[in-house]
Amino acid sequence: MRKLAGIALFGMLLAGTAAAQTRIGEVSTTFRFVGPNDKVLVERYDDPKVEGVACYVSRADTGGLSGAVGLAEDPSRFSIACRAVGPVQIRGEIDQGKKGEEVFTERTSFIFKSMRVTRFFDTQKQVLVYLVWSTKLIDGSPYNAVSVVPLKP
């Protein structure tokens, strides 16, 4: 019993704590006789270190019995659009290195796969670049998408 509780806690830690999401909407895509339907979800993530920036991510959500109990593996298909939704103001220090800084993460399978959003700072063009990607490799490289937010209008 303790081992199972430890595994569950470890899974929650892997899921991350930076995700401050709001579900905006969903569209049912595949009817399932048992359990919830497959869906495309639209969620908003507010950047915790950059005030006035919101990222909207659409992603697949697997239904059925395995989806209902959290054991389904969601497909690595997503899109991202980040926008200035107010005055853009960086709070504190952000990573300006080539590896960027992980901003959000969300588990998309029981253990092995997650969707992540990494922020990069292009100092030359003065823009923030947001990359959404999957931790599970598909044919040698993960699915990904990118969006850019200028720091100055």
Automatic annotation (TrEMBL):
<dbReference type="GO" id="GO:0005829">
    <property type="term" value="C:cytosol"/>
</dbReference>
<dbReference type="Pfam" id="PF05981">
    <property type="entry name" value="CreA"/>
</dbReference>
<feature type="signal peptide">
    <location>
        <begin position="1"/>
        <end position="20"/>
    </location>
</feature>
<dbReference type="InterPro" id="IPR010292">
    <property type="entry name" value="Uncharacterised_CreA"/>
</dbReference>
<protein>
    <submittedName>
        <fullName>CreA</fullName>
    </submittedName>
</protein>
<keyword id="KW-0732">Signal</keyword>
